[in-house]
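Supplementary Methods, section 5.1.

A reviewer requested that the exact input to the structure prediction be made available. We therefore reproduce it here, unchanged from the version used in the analyses.
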Amino acid sequence: MDLDVFVTAHRAEWDRLEQLLGRGRRLTGAEADELVALYQRTATHLSLIQSVAPDPMLTGRLTQLVARARATVTGVRRAGWRDVARFFTAGFPAAVYRSRRWWIPTALVSVAVGVLIGWWIAAHPEVQAAIGAPEELREMTKPGGEYETYYSSHPATSFAAQVWTNNARAAAMCLVLGAFLGIPVLWILFTNMVNLGAGLGLMAAAGRLDTFLGLILPHGLLELTAVFVAAGTGLRLGWTVIDPGPRSRREALAEQGRAALGMAVGLAVVLFVSGVIEGFVTPSGLPTWARITIGVVAEAAFLAYVYVLGGRAARAGEVGDVEAADRTAVQPTAA
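The structure derived from this sequence is encoded cell-by-cell as follows.
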C-alpha cells in the first residue's frame, strides 16, 4: 500500500470527521449519521495503517479521532447500582466459572503439594529439627501453644481486618503478576503451601492433627479457594501472553486483564467473608464440628454461587468483561 496515496484519498474524510466532532452536540440528524459512518471508516483506516504501513504521526492522529468519535457516538455512561448488581449476579460468578479449568487443577495440585510437604515433615524428625529446636516446636504445638493462640491473640475485629488485608493483597498479586508468564504466581502458591504443610506436619507429629484441622478448616476452605481462583486466573493471564489465540495479543490481554481486575474486586468480598470467619468463628468457643460446619457451608455456598449463577450467566454469553459499550473500540484486524 502506498501510504501517500492512501492519505490523499482519505484525508478529506478525516478532516470532515474532526469538523463534526468539533461541533459537539449541535448536529442535525443527517450530520449525526454522517459522523457514525465516518467513525466506522476511520476505525478501519486506522487498523489498515497499523497493519500494513504504520506511521507514528498518522496513527496518533487517527487514534485520537477514533477515540473522540467513539465517545461521541456511545456517550458517557455513569456506573450505578445496576452495574454493581450485574457484576455480582453475572459478571463475577461467570468469570470464576469460565476460569474453572485453570483454578480447579491449581487447587488440586497445590493441596497435594501441601499435604506432601506435611507428610514429609511429620515423618522425618530430622526435617523437624531443621525447622526449629525441639523446645521451640513443643511451645508451638502444645495445647495453648502458638498455633492455637494465633487466632485469638488479637481482638476479633482487628484480626479479621488484618487477615482480610493480607489475603486480598496475596490474591491481587496473583492476578497482577500473572502477566509475567505466571511464574511469580507459582512462587506465591508454593510459599503458601509450604507454610500450610509446615503447620500440618508439625501438628501431626505432635499428635494434634485434629486440632490443626479444627482451626484451619472453618476459614481455610473459602480462603484457599479464593487464593486458588486468583492464582488460576493469574496463570490464565500468563498463558494469554504466550498464546493469545485467534485474537491479537493486545486484544486478548485487554479482555483477560479487565476480567482479572473485576475478579480482584469480587475476590476481595469473598476474602472478607473468610476473614470474618477467621476472626470470629475460628477462635470462638463453638465445638469443633460446629466451626467446621460453618466453613463447609460457606464453601458450599460459594461453589453453588459460581456453578449456578455463574454457569447460567456464562452459558448466556457473559465473560466477566465490562459491557460492550464501555470497552475500548476494537479495530478490525487485517487478514
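Confidence is low (pLDDT under 50) at residues 324-335. These observations are discussed further in the main text.
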